[in-house]
Amino acid sequence: MFALAPAVLAALISACITYLSMPLLQRYALARPNARSSHRIPTPQGAGIAVVAATLLVAAPWAAWAHGAIPLPLIGSAVLIALVGLVDDIRPLPVTVRLLLQAAAVTTVVSAAPEALRIVPALPLAFERVLIVIAGVWFVNLVNFMDGLDLMTVAEVVPTTAALGLLGWFGELSSAATLLAIALCGAMLGFAPFNKPVARVFLGDVGSLPIGLLLGWCLLELAWHGHPAAALLLPGYYLADSTITLFRRIARREQFWSAHRSHFYQRATDNGFTVRQVIGEVFALNLVLALLAIAIVRAGSIAITLPCLLAGAIAIAFVLRRFARPQFL
User: Which of 74, 121, 132, 266 is least buried, going by the fewest C-beta atoms within 10 A?
Assistant: First the structure.
C-alpha cells in the first residue's frame, strides 16, 4: 500500500494540473493537423508539463525522505529539456539547437554518476560513458518520435514504469529510481483520461522529451544494477519501431530528422487499424515484455535470459509485421 501512495498522489496532481492548464494551452500551444498528423482537429499540446511536474514534485521529496535522493543533475536536466520542449511546442527550434541542448542534458546526468557504476567493465570508462550519452540522446528523441498517437506514450510508459517499480520493490533497483518510476507511472495515469481517443490534449515536446530522460535514467539504473538485458527488453517495442524506421529513412536518403508518418504504429492506422486497436496491441505487447524482463531479473540465469530475449524479439517482430500490413490481409 505504501508503494502505491506516490503513484496515487502523482496521478491526482497530474490530473489537476492538466485540467487547469487546458484553457492556457488551447490559447498558446495549439497543434494544428497537417499531412503527417494523426489527429484531425486542432488540439492543445503541452500537458506534459503536468506529468513532469507531478513526477518530480512527488518523487524528489519522497526519495529524499526515504534516504535515496534523486540526483540534482537529473532533476535540472529534466527541467532544462522540458523548457526546450515548451519553446519548441510554441515556436519550433532548429534541429541542431535541440540536439545540442539534449546532449548537454544527457551528458550532465551521465557525468554525475559514480565511476563504480558500470555496464561493461571490460570497456574503458570514458568510452562506455560516451556510448551511454549517445544512447541517452537517442532514447530521449525516440520517446518524442513515438508520441504521435492518442495514449501511445501511456501504453509504453505505464507498463514499463510499473515493472520497474515492482523490481524496485524486490530490491533490484535503487530506491530513488524506484520512486521515480512509481511517480512517473502515476503521473501518466493521471494524464491518460485527457489523452484517450479522441484526445483533448497532447503531451507535447515539453512532456515527451523529459519523460524520455527520466525513463531512460530509470532503465540505466536497472542496467547499472546488473540487469542490462531487462533494461533493453522493457522498452523493446519503442526501440525497434523507432530504430528500424530511422535506418529505413536513412537508406532512402530522406530527411530523417523531419516529421513523417513512417513509424509502424502510424502505418498501422493507414492500414485499417483503429487507434484503439493499435494502442491495445502495444499495451499488451508491453505487458508481455514487462513480464519477460521481470523473469530475467528474478531468475538471474543465462538459461532464462536468452529464451526471454528471444521470446520478446519474436513478440515485437509479430506486432511490427501486423502493423506493416493491411488489416484485411
Answer: 121
| DSSP conformation letters of 71-112 | PHHHHHHHHHHHHHHHHHHHSPPPHHHHHHHHHHHHHHHHHT
Q: How far apart are CA 210 and CA 180, in angstroms?
A: 13
Q: What is the pLDDT of residues 201-214, one digit of tens each?
A: 999 999 999 999 99
Which among 187, 140, 138, 144 has a CA at the least distance from the CA of 162? Answer: 187
Q: What b/e sequence results for 11-37 when a residue is b if at least 16 CB atoms lie within 10 Å of its CB, and e otherwise?
A: bebbbebbbebbeebbeebebeeeeee
44 strand-pairing partners? 30
Considering the entire predicted model, what is its pTM?
Answer: 0.94
Q: Please give the Cα distance from 46 to 29 (Å, whole number).
A: 7
As separate numbers, helices (DSSP H) first and strands (DSSP E) second, the chain gives 13, 2
* Residues of the chain under the 50 pLDDT cut: 1-2
